[in-house]
Design goal:
Elements (H helix, E strand, L loop, with lengths): L2 H22 L26 E5 L4 E4 L8 E5 L5 E8 L2 E5 L5 E5 L3 E2 L3 E4 L4 E4 L8 E5 L4 E7 L3 E6 L2 E6 L3 E2 L9
Antiparallel strand pairs: 1-4, 1-7, 2-3, 4-5, 5-6, 8-11, 8-14, 9-10, 11-12, 12-13
Length: 181
């Protein structure tokens, strides 16, 4: 018996044995059968979607699609700007700003540090989370503040070194009812 005859014989035996073994064992699920993915979690990070982050540096390119070959639609230019992640793909995150404008950014341009944008002109920040508390300072529309904590209706922020409590309804970058310790 030469090598070629041996290999042909072994291949036939393996195929016959494989067919027999398959008949004896229950069918395994096909490799492409996956358990359904939770649509409220990102497929890459398994973190909640949507979620808020902030712009890490002073600028970040926003592209039409998730890749360097996609054209840049615009550039975010405010460090700490709050953004909402709505989708993930590999090293890319689809983000939007408070106006709903957005696109795809590389994940390393984003920070997990939370910030918020004041959406009310001359918003009042108070000493405690109470509408009757003393007003400690005011901020103009569009001011970006670092988010420190939130209860059901109020958030404590740091805006330009001043700390105070403000109603969530006067902010963009935090969801209603979201609690942050």
């Amino acid at each position: 018996m030469n090598r070629k005859q041996f290999l042909v014989g072994m291949t036939a035996a393996l195929l016959a044995g494989g067919a027999q073994a398959q008949e004896e064992l229950p069918m395994a699920p096909a490799p492409d059968d996956k358990t359904p993915r939770d649509p409220n979690k990102g497929p890459v990070t398994n973190l909640p979607l949507p979620r808020y982050v902030s712009l890490k540096g002073r600028e970040g390119n926003v592209r039409r699609g998730p890749g360097m070959t996609h054209r840049i639609d615009w550039v975010f230019t405010t460090a700490g700007m709050p953004l909402r992640i709505t989708a993930e793909y590999d090293r890319w995150r689809r983000v939007e700003d408070y106006q709903g404008m957005g696109g795809w950014m590389q994940f390393n341009l984003l920070s997990g540090s939370r910030s918020v944008l004041v959406t009310q002109d001359m918003a009042e920040f108070r000493d405690s989370p109470d509408a009757q508390a003393r007003v400690s300072f005011q901020a103009e529309l569009g001011v970006i503040a670092k988010l420190l904590e939130c209860n059901a209706d109020w958030c404590r922020v740091n805006a330009g070194g001043e700390k105070g409590w403000i109603l969530k309804s006067s902010l963009w970058g935090v969801d209603p009812g979201e609690i942050i310790d």
